[in-house]
Design brief:
Layout: E1 4-8, H1 16-27, E2 34-38, H2 40-49, H3 55-61, H4 72-78, H5 84-90, H6 102-107, E3 111-118, E4 124-128, H7 138-143, E5 153-155, E6 158-162, H8 171-176, E7 181-185, H9 197-206, H10 211-218, H11 220-236, E8 240-243, H12 258-271, H13 275-280
Parallel strand pairs: 1-2, 1-7, 2-3, 7-8
Antiparallel strand pairs: 3-4, 3-6, 5-6
Helix pairs in contact: 1-2, 1-12, 9-10
Length: 281
């Protein structure tokens, strides 16, 4: 029997693209045997696995414009540009404004892996569904802690940074775990080649407190580009379907605009139309 996997690599506010993909998948009743989420991609997936269509869209297009969600003031007061406890706690807990339907998430047969980076040694840490509990979405917070913009997020005494540092495109992991059809959601254009210069300054700042994580951040461009080569090879072999926006709509990891968010979301909705045929072959 064919085993299927979905990967969302995250990308801050660009990740509204993945929210669009998953909402269209829910419209079509398409589920996967396993979901792999990196950074904001893991947050998209918890709503997808719980069957909450439109939930992440509201987070990106409405809640994200609140100063409590992401702002320079947050960074000054909390040393976190994005207030991960507000996003994945205050808003998402059972008494929050838009709770995760945790019982539905837990009951779903879909397996779940969340990628984070251990700040102490720079290694990837793969959390699974058993690490997610009612009103405890700490592993998503850990996976989404963008270095320098956020403090590392501590889970069970261990500090973690954004999973995109250590394993930005975990397609080889999914292949190694035996998945025959893998849908990969990117939030850069498919032909994007990451360059090291963007991460050089944050890595230099990070080196003072977390030298191993800083080294991984400095070399993230190599990891990303190498993993993208693997994805393209597997796509050529028919094992992977790559979904990627043709334009970033003025969005970046920590920058957004209302029109761009809606446009990117629509691109995700449209891109998902290719999934049924891919899974049928």
């Amino acid at each position: 029997m064919m085993r299927t996997a979905l990967i969302d690599v995250g990308g801050g506010f660009r990740s509204v693209y993945g929210a669009g993909v998953m909402d269209r998948l829910l419209d079509k009743g398409i589920t996967f045997d396993k979901c792999y989420g990196v950074s904001a991609g893991s947050a998209n997936m918890i709503s997808y696995i719980s069957g909450q269509r439109g939930r992440t869209h509201k987070f990106y297009t409405e809640y994200a414009f609140r100063p409590e969600y992401a702002s320079a003031n947050n960074f000054i007061k909390l040393h976190n540009y994005a207030n991960l406890d507000y996003i994945y706690g205050t808003l998402s807990n059972s008494d929050g404004e838009y709770p995760v339907d945790y019982p539905a998430f837990a009951a779903s047969p879909t397996e779940f892996t969340v990628v984070a980076c251990d700040a102490r040694n720079g290694y990837a840490r793969y959390f699974d569904k058993s690490d997610v509990h009612q009103d405890n979405y700490d592993v998503m917070k850990a996976s989404s802690a963008v270095p320098v913009a956020c403090e590392p997020y501590v889970v069970d005494g261990i500090p973690y940074f954004d999973g995109g540092i250590a394993d930005p495109i975990p397609v080889q992991l999914a292949a190694d775990e035996g998945y025959d059809r893998i849908v990969l959601i990117l939030t850069h254009q498919r032909d994007f080649v990451r360059e090291g210069k963007k991460d050089a300054a944050p890595a230099a700042l990070l080196k003072r407190s977390y030298p191993a994580a800083a080294e991984r951040l400095k070399n993230r461009y190599r990891t990303y580009n190498e993993e993208m080569e693997v994805a393209e090879k597997l796509a050529a072999d028919g094992q992977v379907l790559i979904l990627a926006p043709d334009d970033l709509c003025g969005l970046d990891t920590l920058s957004k605009n209302p029109e761009g968010l809606e446009e990117m979301y629509q691109k995700g909705l449209d891109a998902a139309e290719a999934v049924p045929e891919f899974l049928a072959n």
